[in-house]
Write a structure and sequence with these properties.
The protein folds into three domains: about 100 residues, Herpes Virus-1 (2-Layer Sandwich); about 30 residues, no CATH class; about 130 residues, Apoptosis, Tumor Necrosis Factor Receptor Associated Protein 2, Chain A, CATH 2.60.210.10. The chain contains nine helices and 16 strands. The radius of gyration is 42 Å and the shape is flat. Strand 4 and strand 5 form a beta hairpin. The protein has about 375 residues and is of the alpha+beta class.
Amino acid sequence: MLNEILLKMEMADTEASSSRLASSSQTITVNVAEIENVAEKQPAPEDFQEPEAKRKKLSNQQDSKPDKLELRLGGILCCAVCLDLPRAAIYQCTNGHLMCAGCFTHVMADARLRDEMATCPNCRIEISKSSASRNLAVEKAVSELPAECQFCNKEFPRNTLERHEDSLCEERMTSCQYSRIGCPWRGPHHEGQEHEVACPFPNRSGAEVMEALQLIDQKNEEEKRLYDSVFDLLSYEKITFNDLQMKPYRTDEFVHKLFYETSRFSAFNNQWVLKARINNSQRDPTLSSERDMTYQLILKTKTTLPLSVHYLILRGPFGDMKVSPKIHKFDFTDVDNESPYVAMPLPDTAECNRLLAAKAINFRLIMFLITK
């Protein structure tokens, strides 16, 4: 009896242990399945992506590049200095970097003022008038690119834009045809005819328009005075002219300053020199965006009698200087043998930079001696 009871207890233990093993294996199977399900739900590392809104924004940024060919060409063919499309000549260094004519002469002028070799602003290779060359293909390509009219905002090829703005655009600014008698009106061209019909100035009396006429007469009188002075000087007995060349030099000061000077030349049985300086010997002219030249005439030989001399500078046959001639007068003596510095009659800063960029400045000096 006891043996049967023990046998039943062993069988019960065996069944319980087997059931526990089965349940544990089932649990393991379930856990493995859950792990596999979780693994399937989790994305792989390479599948990590930006949120939908951000992904859309990024794609829009990539698609926002200019599609028009002229816009892409404008970014490629622009000047390396001012980043604008050149209007006229385009120069390039030996590596092909482009510069408009204004920036090229400005870089050359800055190098002259600093007593350094001019370098390309992109690759820093040395550039000069002889090493840099014009890129005619780029000039023609740029002339065909569209540009907006400053008045009507319509696009036209660059080679026709100037003519459109000067004479064709209906929105271009014009003055009243009665501006010579004082009408101050300025407006779009298409409104000019309507204004001139109602303009009150044609109906004014002569006394009312005298002020405007006096201003015109004053300007004409200044021009007439210059021509009369020239013709009067041409009647003098002693007249001479010299085609001169000014070359750059440096002062002996601690901070070397640039100046220009000609070789000695003969006039009226005396030796003379013409000397010029930049911005009235400013300490560092490269810091100024406005540049000009002043010059003086120096008598190098001794004289027993005062020399009353009129002189003026012209372009001359060997130079291309743009000048508006102006007559100056000075009485030279042994004690006072240097005339004061007077302005070189250049039209603007761009012309001054162009002269500084050249190796030398060529011009003609005409001198008139007043004999007593």
